[in-house]
């Protein structure tokens, strides 16, 4: 019996916005990445994102803005 595996077993690299740092460097289904902004900046968007089975990330792409 032949098994077909989904090609979406991971998500694309979600990147790191300007002024931010990201924890997490594995992008398989169920993996999470978290973001934090450098001192003096405020995070707007999702602090944590999870790779979904669809190959997309949960939440919104974060940005860092001046407080």
Word description of this protein:
The protein has 67 residues and is an all-beta fold. Helix content is 0%, strand content 31%. The protein contains no helices and 5 strands. The protein has a 3-stranded antiparallel sheet with strand order 1-2-4, with no helix packed on it. Strands 3-5 form a two-stranded antiparallel sheet. The radius of gyration is 14 Å and the shape is elongated. The relative contact order is 0.29.
Side by side, the strands of the main sheet go: 1-2-4
Following the backbone from N to C, one meets helices and strands in this order, namely EEEEE
Quaternary arrangement of the chains shown? single chain
The total of beta strands comes to 5
Mean of residue pLDDT? 90
Form type: elongated
Distance between the termini: 58 Å
Residues in helices, as a percent range? under 10%
What is the number of helical segments per DSSP (H or I, 4+ residues)? 0
Rg value: 14 Å
**Which residue ranges are poorly predicted, with pLDDT under 50 across at least 5 consecutive positions?**
none
> What is the SS-derived class?
mainly beta
The proportion of residues in beta strands is: 25-35%
List keywords for this structure.
67 residues; mainly beta; three-stranded antiparallel sheet; two-stranded antiparallel ribbon; 31% strand
């Amino acid at each position: 019996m032949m098994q077909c595996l989904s090609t979406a077993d991971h998500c694309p690299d979600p990147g790191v916005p300007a002024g931010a740092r990201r924890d997490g460097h594995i992008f398989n289904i169920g993996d999470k990445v978290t973001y934090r902004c450098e001192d003096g900046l405020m995070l707007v968007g999702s602090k944590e994102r999870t790779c979904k089975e669809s190959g997309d990330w949960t939440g919104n792409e974060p940005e860092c803005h001046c407080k």
